Amino acid sequence: MIRWQNLWRFIPLFGLMMLLLTGCGDQTISALKPRGPVARDQLFLMKLSFGIMLLVVVVVFVLYLYVLVRFRKKKGDKDIIPKQVEGSHTLEIIWTVIPIILLLILAVPTVQYTFKLLEDHRDNKDALHVKVTAHAFWWQFEYPELGIATAQDLVIPTNKKIAFELTASDVKHSFWVPSLGGKMDTNPGNTNVYYLQADEVDVFKGKCAELCGASHSLMDFKVKSMDQADFDQWVAKMKTPAAVPADAQKGEQIFKDNCLSCHAVNAQGLGAGPNLNGFASRELVAGILPHNDESLKQWIADPQSVKPGNKMPALGLKDDQINDVIKYLNSLKLK
Protein backbone atom coordinates (compact mmCIF):
# COMPACT_ATOMS: atom_id res chain seq x y z
CA MET A 1 0.00 0.00 0.00
CA ILE A 2 2.82 2.38 0.92
CA ARG A 3 4.54 1.54 -2.37
CA TRP A 4 1.52 2.74 -4.40
CA GLN A 5 1.19 5.88 -2.30
CA ASN A 6 4.76 6.87 -3.20
CA LEU A 7 4.20 6.56 -6.95
CA TRP A 8 2.75 10.08 -7.20
CA ARG A 9 6.28 11.40 -6.68
CA PHE A 10 7.26 10.06 -10.09
CA ILE A 11 4.53 11.96 -11.96
CA PRO A 12 6.66 15.13 -12.44
CA LEU A 13 9.55 12.93 -13.66
CA PHE A 14 7.30 11.16 -16.18
CA GLY A 15 5.92 14.52 -17.33
CA LEU A 16 9.45 15.85 -17.88
CA MET A 17 10.46 12.71 -19.78
CA MET A 18 7.39 12.99 -22.03
CA LEU A 19 8.22 16.63 -22.75
CA LEU A 20 11.82 15.79 -23.65
CA LEU A 21 10.97 12.70 -25.71
CA THR A 22 8.51 14.62 -27.89
CA GLY A 23 11.58 16.23 -29.47
CA CYS A 24 13.03 12.85 -30.46
CA GLY A 25 12.34 11.11 -33.73
CA ASP A 26 13.39 10.67 -37.32
CA GLN A 27 13.70 14.02 -39.09
CA THR A 28 12.94 12.40 -42.46
CA ILE A 29 9.45 11.48 -41.27
CA SER A 30 8.42 14.73 -39.61
CA ALA A 31 5.91 17.21 -40.98
CA LEU A 32 7.71 19.86 -38.89
CA LYS A 33 10.83 19.54 -41.07
CA PRO A 34 9.51 20.49 -44.53
CA ARG A 35 11.74 19.58 -47.46
CA GLY A 36 9.52 20.73 -50.31
CA PRO A 37 7.14 23.56 -51.26
CA VAL A 38 3.95 21.62 -50.47
CA ALA A 39 5.19 20.70 -46.99
CA ARG A 40 6.26 24.30 -46.32
CA ASP A 41 2.84 25.68 -47.27
CA GLN A 42 1.11 23.13 -45.08
CA LEU A 43 3.44 23.84 -42.16
CA PHE A 44 2.58 27.55 -42.46
CA LEU A 45 -1.13 26.70 -42.11
CA MET A 46 -0.40 24.49 -39.12
CA LYS A 47 1.55 27.28 -37.43
CA LEU A 48 -1.19 29.79 -38.21
CA SER A 49 -3.94 27.62 -36.74
CA PHE A 50 -1.81 26.74 -33.70
CA GLY A 51 -1.04 30.43 -33.15
CA ILE A 52 -4.73 31.36 -33.26
CA MET A 53 -5.63 28.57 -30.84
CA LEU A 54 -2.80 29.56 -28.52
CA LEU A 55 -3.97 33.19 -28.58
CA VAL A 56 -7.51 32.13 -27.64
CA VAL A 57 -6.26 29.93 -24.80
CA VAL A 58 -4.02 32.69 -23.41
CA VAL A 59 -6.79 35.31 -23.54
CA VAL A 60 -9.30 32.98 -21.87
CA PHE A 61 -6.89 32.04 -19.08
CA VAL A 62 -5.89 35.69 -18.51
CA LEU A 63 -9.55 36.68 -18.16
CA TYR A 64 -10.19 33.70 -15.93
CA LEU A 65 -7.29 34.54 -13.62
CA TYR A 66 -8.25 38.23 -13.57
CA VAL A 67 -11.80 37.44 -12.51
CA LEU A 68 -10.55 34.86 -10.01
CA VAL A 69 -8.28 37.40 -8.32
CA ARG A 70 -10.32 40.58 -8.81
CA PHE A 71 -13.64 39.28 -7.53
CA ARG A 72 -12.54 36.75 -4.94
CA LYS A 73 -13.97 37.03 -1.48
CA LYS A 74 -11.54 38.92 0.74
CA LYS A 75 -11.10 38.71 4.46
CA GLY A 76 -13.66 40.88 6.18
CA ASP A 77 -16.11 40.97 3.28
CA LYS A 78 -19.74 40.61 4.25
CA ASP A 79 -21.90 37.82 2.91
CA ILE A 80 -23.80 39.82 0.33
CA ILE A 81 -25.25 38.97 -3.05
CA PRO A 82 -23.53 40.97 -5.81
CA LYS A 83 -25.52 43.06 -8.21
CA GLN A 84 -27.17 40.78 -10.77
CA VAL A 85 -26.47 41.75 -14.39
CA GLU A 86 -28.52 40.11 -17.13
CA GLY A 87 -26.01 40.79 -19.89
CA SER A 88 -24.08 43.31 -21.93
CA HIS A 89 -24.82 43.87 -25.59
CA THR A 90 -21.35 45.35 -26.04
CA LEU A 91 -19.59 42.30 -24.63
CA GLU A 92 -21.85 39.93 -26.57
CA ILE A 93 -20.99 41.71 -29.81
CA ILE A 94 -17.27 41.65 -28.96
CA TRP A 95 -17.11 37.92 -28.20
CA THR A 96 -19.12 37.17 -31.33
CA VAL A 97 -17.15 39.39 -33.71
CA ILE A 98 -13.68 38.39 -32.47
CA PRO A 99 -14.14 34.62 -33.20
CA ILE A 100 -15.52 35.49 -36.66
CA ILE A 101 -12.40 37.58 -37.34
CA LEU A 102 -10.14 34.76 -36.12
CA LEU A 103 -11.97 32.25 -38.34
CA LEU A 104 -11.54 34.55 -41.34
CA ILE A 105 -7.82 34.92 -40.59
CA LEU A 106 -7.56 31.13 -40.69
CA ALA A 107 -10.04 30.46 -43.50
CA VAL A 108 -8.71 32.91 -46.10
CA PRO A 109 -5.15 31.51 -46.35
CA THR A 110 -6.46 27.95 -46.03
CA VAL A 111 -8.74 28.39 -49.04
CA GLN A 112 -5.99 30.28 -50.87
CA TYR A 113 -3.42 27.52 -50.38
CA THR A 114 -5.98 24.82 -51.20
CA PHE A 115 -6.68 26.38 -54.60
CA LYS A 116 -2.95 27.04 -55.07
CA LEU A 117 -2.16 23.35 -54.64
CA LEU A 118 -4.99 22.45 -57.00
CA GLU A 119 -3.79 24.89 -59.68
CA ASP A 120 -0.20 23.74 -59.26
CA HIS A 121 -1.33 20.16 -59.83
CA ARG A 122 -3.25 21.12 -62.97
CA ASP A 123 -0.20 22.98 -64.27
CA ASN A 124 1.75 19.74 -64.63
CA LYS A 125 2.98 19.90 -68.22
CA ASP A 126 6.59 19.67 -67.06
CA ALA A 127 5.87 17.31 -64.17
CA LEU A 128 6.97 13.70 -63.85
CA HIS A 129 3.86 11.51 -63.69
CA VAL A 130 3.84 8.60 -61.25
CA LYS A 131 1.01 6.15 -60.71
CA VAL A 132 0.91 4.78 -57.16
CA THR A 133 -1.00 1.60 -56.35
CA ALA A 134 -1.31 0.53 -52.73
CA HIS A 135 -1.44 -3.18 -51.98
CA ALA A 136 -1.59 -5.15 -48.74
CA PHE A 137 1.06 -4.35 -47.54
CA TRP A 138 3.38 -2.82 -50.14
CA TRP A 139 3.57 0.01 -52.68
CA GLN A 140 3.79 -0.13 -56.45
CA PHE A 141 5.17 2.80 -58.47
CA GLU A 142 4.71 3.14 -62.23
CA TYR A 143 6.34 5.76 -64.45
CA PRO A 144 4.12 5.62 -67.56
CA GLU A 145 6.12 8.23 -69.49
CA LEU A 146 9.40 6.41 -68.82
CA GLY A 147 8.15 2.86 -69.32
CA ILE A 148 9.35 1.51 -65.97
CA ALA A 149 7.79 0.20 -62.78
CA THR A 150 9.19 -0.56 -59.35
CA ALA A 151 8.10 -1.22 -55.78
CA GLN A 152 8.81 0.06 -52.27
CA ASP A 153 11.47 2.60 -53.38
CA LEU A 154 10.06 5.69 -55.10
CA VAL A 155 12.85 7.48 -56.98
CA ILE A 156 12.31 11.10 -58.07
CA PRO A 157 14.41 13.99 -59.40
CA THR A 158 14.90 17.02 -57.16
CA ASN A 159 13.35 20.42 -57.89
CA LYS A 160 10.80 18.82 -60.21
CA LYS A 161 7.08 18.56 -59.69
CA ILE A 162 5.86 14.96 -59.31
CA ALA A 163 2.20 14.52 -60.33
CA PHE A 164 0.71 11.50 -58.59
CA GLU A 165 -2.26 9.32 -59.46
CA LEU A 166 -3.20 7.31 -56.39
CA THR A 167 -5.31 4.18 -56.21
CA ALA A 168 -5.52 0.88 -54.29
CA SER A 169 -5.96 -2.73 -55.33
CA ASP A 170 -7.71 -4.11 -52.24
CA VAL A 171 -8.72 -1.91 -49.28
CA LYS A 172 -8.34 1.75 -48.45
CA HIS A 173 -4.79 2.92 -47.75
CA SER A 174 -3.22 6.39 -47.49
CA PHE A 175 -0.04 7.66 -49.14
CA TRP A 176 2.03 9.88 -46.82
CA VAL A 177 5.53 11.36 -47.06
CA PRO A 178 5.56 13.77 -44.08
CA SER A 179 8.70 15.67 -45.14
CA LEU A 180 7.24 16.43 -48.57
CA GLY A 181 3.51 16.92 -47.93
CA GLY A 182 0.30 15.75 -46.35
CA LYS A 183 -1.34 12.39 -46.85
CA MET A 184 -3.72 11.42 -49.65
CA ASP A 185 -6.07 8.43 -49.55
CA THR A 186 -5.80 5.59 -52.04
CA ASN A 187 -9.19 4.00 -52.68
CA PRO A 188 -10.08 0.88 -54.70
CA GLY A 189 -11.81 1.80 -57.95
CA ASN A 190 -11.05 5.48 -57.56
CA THR A 191 -8.09 7.73 -58.45
CA ASN A 192 -6.95 10.68 -56.36
CA VAL A 193 -4.42 13.19 -57.68
CA TYR A 194 -1.97 15.59 -56.09
CA TYR A 195 1.66 16.58 -56.40
CA LEU A 196 4.82 16.71 -54.32
CA GLN A 197 8.29 18.11 -54.85
CA ALA A 198 11.65 17.60 -53.11
CA ASP A 199 14.06 20.51 -52.85
CA GLU A 200 17.20 18.55 -52.07
CA VAL A 201 18.92 15.21 -52.55
CA ASP A 202 18.00 12.91 -49.69
CA VAL A 203 16.01 9.85 -48.65
CA PHE A 204 12.59 10.45 -47.12
CA LYS A 205 10.46 7.87 -45.34
CA GLY A 206 6.86 7.27 -46.29
CA LYS A 207 4.08 5.35 -44.59
CA CYS A 208 0.53 4.20 -44.97
CA ALA A 209 -1.56 6.60 -42.86
CA GLU A 210 -4.81 4.61 -42.92
CA LEU A 211 -5.45 1.55 -40.76
CA CYS A 212 -5.62 -1.16 -43.42
CA GLY A 213 -4.99 -4.51 -41.78
CA ALA A 214 -2.72 -6.62 -39.62
CA SER A 215 0.54 -5.22 -41.03
CA HIS A 216 -0.54 -1.61 -41.44
CA SER A 217 2.33 -0.41 -39.23
CA LEU A 218 4.81 -2.26 -41.48
CA MET A 219 3.55 -0.72 -44.75
CA ASP A 220 6.53 1.60 -45.20
CA PHE A 221 8.36 2.86 -48.28
CA LYS A 222 11.18 5.23 -49.15
CA VAL A 223 11.42 8.24 -51.44
CA LYS A 224 14.87 8.82 -52.93
CA SER A 225 15.40 12.25 -54.47
CA MET A 226 18.30 12.56 -56.92
CA ASP A 227 19.84 15.14 -59.19
CA GLN A 228 18.32 14.99 -62.67
CA ALA A 229 21.48 13.46 -64.13
CA ASP A 230 21.54 10.70 -61.48
CA PHE A 231 17.83 10.10 -61.98
CA ASP A 232 18.33 9.69 -65.74
CA GLN A 233 21.10 7.16 -65.04
CA TRP A 234 18.79 5.27 -62.68
CA VAL A 235 16.10 5.10 -65.39
CA ALA A 236 18.66 3.78 -67.88
CA LYS A 237 19.84 1.14 -65.41
CA MET A 238 16.25 0.06 -64.72
CA LYS A 239 15.79 -0.56 -68.46
CA THR A 240 19.00 -2.60 -68.72
CA PRO A 241 18.38 -6.32 -68.07
CA ALA A 242 20.53 -7.80 -65.33
CA ALA A 243 23.08 -10.38 -66.42
CA VAL A 244 22.53 -13.58 -64.46
CA PRO A 245 25.85 -15.30 -63.59
CA ALA A 246 26.23 -19.03 -64.17
CA ASP A 247 26.14 -19.89 -60.45
CA ALA A 248 22.73 -18.15 -60.09
CA GLN A 249 20.98 -19.79 -63.04
CA LYS A 250 19.72 -22.70 -60.95
CA GLY A 251 18.06 -20.24 -58.62
CA GLU A 252 16.66 -18.38 -61.63
CA GLN A 253 14.87 -21.53 -62.78
CA ILE A 254 13.45 -22.15 -59.31
CA PHE A 255 12.29 -18.52 -59.27
CA LYS A 256 10.59 -18.92 -62.66
CA ASP A 257 8.83 -22.09 -61.52
CA ASN A 258 7.56 -20.68 -58.21
CA CYS A 259 7.65 -16.89 -58.20
CA LEU A 260 7.40 -15.47 -61.71
CA SER A 261 3.61 -15.73 -61.79
CA CYS A 262 3.49 -12.89 -59.23
CA HIS A 263 6.85 -11.10 -59.47
CA ALA A 264 8.14 -9.42 -62.62
CA VAL A 265 11.88 -8.86 -63.04
CA ASN A 266 11.88 -6.45 -65.97
CA ALA A 267 11.46 -2.71 -66.41
CA GLN A 268 7.72 -2.56 -67.11
CA GLY A 269 6.37 -5.75 -65.59
CA LEU A 270 3.46 -5.68 -63.15
CA GLY A 271 1.97 -8.52 -61.17
CA ALA A 272 0.27 -9.55 -57.97
CA GLY A 273 3.55 -9.00 -56.12
CA PRO A 274 6.25 -6.33 -56.23
CA ASN A 275 8.38 -5.90 -59.35
CA LEU A 276 11.84 -7.20 -58.38
CA ASN A 277 13.79 -5.48 -61.15
CA GLY A 278 16.98 -4.14 -59.52
CA PHE A 279 16.03 -5.88 -56.27
CA ALA A 280 19.65 -6.42 -55.15
CA SER A 281 20.20 -2.65 -55.14
CA ARG A 282 17.45 -2.05 -52.59
CA GLU A 283 18.33 -1.52 -48.95
CA LEU A 284 15.40 -3.38 -47.39
CA VAL A 285 13.62 -6.70 -47.73
CA ALA A 286 9.81 -6.54 -47.62
CA GLY A 287 10.20 -2.85 -46.91
CA ILE A 288 11.27 -3.40 -43.29
CA LEU A 289 14.07 -5.99 -42.94
CA PRO A 290 17.76 -5.23 -43.56
CA HIS A 291 18.84 -6.50 -46.96
CA ASN A 292 20.92 -9.61 -46.24
CA ASP A 293 20.71 -13.34 -46.85
CA GLU A 294 19.28 -14.06 -43.42
CA SER A 295 16.39 -11.64 -43.93
CA LEU A 296 15.71 -13.01 -47.40
CA LYS A 297 15.64 -16.56 -46.08
CA GLN A 298 13.24 -15.59 -43.31
CA TRP A 299 10.95 -13.80 -45.76
CA ILE A 300 10.87 -16.57 -48.38
CA ALA A 301 10.45 -19.37 -45.84
CA ASP A 302 7.68 -17.76 -43.78
CA PRO A 303 6.32 -14.42 -45.05
CA GLN A 304 3.52 -14.33 -42.47
CA SER A 305 6.01 -14.20 -39.59
CA VAL A 306 7.41 -10.97 -41.06
CA LYS A 307 4.25 -9.27 -42.31
CA PRO A 308 1.10 -10.92 -40.95
CA GLY A 309 -1.80 -10.84 -43.39
CA ASN A 310 0.28 -10.27 -46.54
CA LYS A 311 -0.65 -12.19 -49.68
CA MET A 312 2.66 -13.95 -50.32
CA PRO A 313 2.31 -17.67 -49.58
CA ALA A 314 4.93 -19.88 -48.00
CA LEU A 315 6.22 -21.83 -51.01
CA GLY A 316 7.52 -24.81 -49.08
CA LEU A 317 10.95 -24.65 -50.68
CA LYS A 318 13.82 -26.60 -49.16
CA ASP A 319 16.76 -24.76 -47.62
CA ASP A 320 19.05 -25.42 -50.58
CA GLN A 321 16.36 -24.17 -52.99
CA ILE A 322 15.89 -21.00 -50.93
CA ASN A 323 19.65 -20.43 -50.96
CA ASP A 324 19.68 -20.79 -54.76
CA VAL A 325 16.82 -18.29 -55.10
CA ILE A 326 18.66 -15.86 -52.81
CA LYS A 327 21.75 -16.15 -55.00
CA TYR A 328 19.62 -15.29 -58.03
CA LEU A 329 17.92 -12.36 -56.32
CA ASN A 330 21.32 -10.98 -55.30
CA SER A 331 22.28 -10.92 -58.98
CA LEU A 332 19.45 -8.50 -59.85
CA LYS A 333 21.58 -5.38 -59.49
CA LEU A 334 21.33 -2.05 -61.25
CA LYS A 335 24.60 -1.65 -63.16
From TrEMBL:
InterPro entries: CcO_II (IPR045187), CcO_II-like_C (IPR002429), Copper_CuA (IPR001505), Cupredoxin (IPR008972), CuRO_CcO_Caa3_II (IPR034236), Cyt_c-like_dom (IPR009056), Cyt_c_oxidase_su2 (IPR014222), Cyt_c_oxidase_su2_TM_dom (IPR011759)
Localization (cell): Cell membrane; Membrane
Keywords in alphabetical order: Copper, Electron transport, Heme, Iron, Membrane, Metal-binding, Respiratory chain, Translocase, Transmembrane, Transmembrane helix, Transport
CDD domains per the UniProt record, alphabetical: CuRO_CcO_Caa3_II
Ranges of residues in domain Cytochrome oxidase subunit II transmembrane region profile: 23-121
Ranges where the Cytochrome oxidase subunit II copper A binding domain occurs: 125-237
Bilayer-crossing regions: 49-69, 90-108
Domain of life: Bacteria
Catalytic function, reaction form: 4 Fe(II)-[cytochrome c] + O2 + 8 H(+)(in) = 4 Fe(III)-[cytochrome c] + 2 H2O + 4 H(+)(out)
Cofactor or coenzyme needed: Cu cation
PROSITE patterns reported in the protein's UniProt record: COX2 (PS00078), COX2_CUA (PS50857), COX2_TM (PS50999), CYTC (PS51007), PROKAR_LIPOPROTEIN (PS51257)
Cofactor note: Binds a copper A center.
Limits of the Cytochrome c domain: 246-333
Family stated for the protein in its record: Belongs to the cytochrome c oxidase subunit 2 family.
Record NCBIfam families: CoxB (TIGR02866)
Name by which UniProt lists this protein: Cytochrome c oxidase subunit 2
Species of the source: Paenibacillus ehimensis
